[in-house]
Design brief:
- It is a single chain.
- The chain contains eight helices and 13 strands.
- By secondary structure, it is an alpha+beta fold.
- The protein folds into two domains: 165 residues, no CATH class; 167 residues, no CATH class.
- The strands form three sheets. A five-stranded mixed beta barrel has the order 2-5-6-10-9. A four-stranded antiparallel sheet has the order 4-3-8-7.
- Helix 4 packs antiparallel against helix 8.
- It is elongated and about 80 Å long.
């Protein structure tokens, strides 16, 4: 075992257990005549090192395992395979397992991050602290079988390629549509400003809302990449489409209601109050995504424009609109505005 300064380690040993035990990590499919049934589960397992010590391996959310395996035969044999496929098939029916899995009792090489240490028994003393050793590792790449050392290198490279592919900007199919919507929002904002300057109708707050959605539509129209970098857990990704929908559902009705009930002298302020309440959520997610250090583990991430210029226009523009909203509301809460 070798440990690097960034707590990334490589563990070599034997998976504890018998070959007939259930596989602790599986990403595979049971291939039958009319299709394929996915099989996937992950559980922690122990690896016994050459010195007899055991280290617990906790699979990450998307560990890369190599090699990809195949196993074919009659159902009566494969239903007892360590992968533990389930189904109701004829005992003599031919089926096939295809994918990645770990079999207890086989050699493995694990690359992962140290999550816990433990003290080494009978070390240290009154003046010295006991020695510490790795006890728990979160695996990001695993090589299995007799060629585990070579396979784990392939797993690491494949994982790096997957991360790079996720970070590569991917144009949305509706880029042009969203770009036109962004332009329309900015034009509408200019129209509301003109109406305010010409007739003092209290439409500044509506103009501010249009600017906000112009920025959001521009975000939706831009090719994006993940911030911070690293493996992606799709359930925890803030994407521009979801954010536009979230604010469209909550902010637009709120602004319209406040504008209608605010009265001529209050409309500028009350129509901006909605962004003060809701704006910190998208602004916070975006800023945290930009400032967070790239990490290899899955986690809360955000899709932001791949272009640095567009990215900064988005974040600085949203922050500026939030400050402008405060400026519009402040006179009404300080006692210096027309509400007094």
């Amino acid at each position: 075992m070798r440990e690097q300064r960034d707590e990334l380690v490589t563990i070599e040993g034997i998976v504890v257990g018998a070959a007939t035990d259930r596989s602790p990590v599986v990403t595979a499919a049971l291939v039958i005549a009319d299709g394929a049934l996915p099989i996937e589960h992950r559980a922690s397992f122990d690896v016994e090192l050459r010195d007899g010590r055991r280290v617990t391996i906790e699979p990450a959310k998307n560990p890369v395992i190599r090699p990809t395996r195949k196993h074919a035969g009659p159902w009566r044999e494969l239903e007892h395979h360590p992968v533990r496929p389930t189904g109701d098939f004829h005992p003599d029916g031919h089926v096939k397992l295809r994918g990645e899995w770990i079999v207890p009792g086989e050699p493995v090489v694990v690359v992962g991050y140290v999550k816990e240490h433990e003290f080494v028994p009978e070390t240290g003393g009154h003046r010295e602290a006991p020695e510490r050793q790795v006890a728990l590792v979160r695996a990001i790449a695993i090589g299995v079988g007799e060629d585990a050392a070579a396979d784990v290198k392939k797993a690491v490279k494949d994982r790096e390629r997957e991360i790079e592919a996720r970070a590569t900007p991917k144009p949305h199919a509706s880029n042009t549509t969203w770009a036109w919507r962004a332009l329309g929002a900015f034009v509408l904002a200019a129209l509301f400003v003109f109406v305010e300057l010409r007739w003092h109708s209290g439409t500044t707050g509506l103009a501010l809302t249009c600017v906000i959605f112009g920025l959001l539509f521009g975000w939706r129209a831009s090719p994006t990449q993940m911030f911070p970098g690293g493996a992606v857990d799709k359930d925890e990704v803030t994407d521009p489409g979801t954010m536009v929908g979230f604010l469209g559902i909550l902010l637009v009705p709120l602004v319209i209601v406040l504008f209608l009930v605010g009265g001529a002298e209050k409309r500028d302020g009350v129509a901006s109050a909605g962004w003060i309440m809701l704006g910190l959520f998208p602004i916070g997610r975006i800023v945290l995504g930009m400032l967070a250090k790239p990490r290899a583990e899955a986690g809360s991430q955000v899709e932001l424009p791949a272009s640095a210029i567009r990215r900064w226009i988005l974040v600085l523009g949203l922050i500026a609109t939030w400050i402008a909203a405060i400026a519009l509301v402040a006179p009404h809460v300080s006692g210096d505005g027309p509400m007094t």
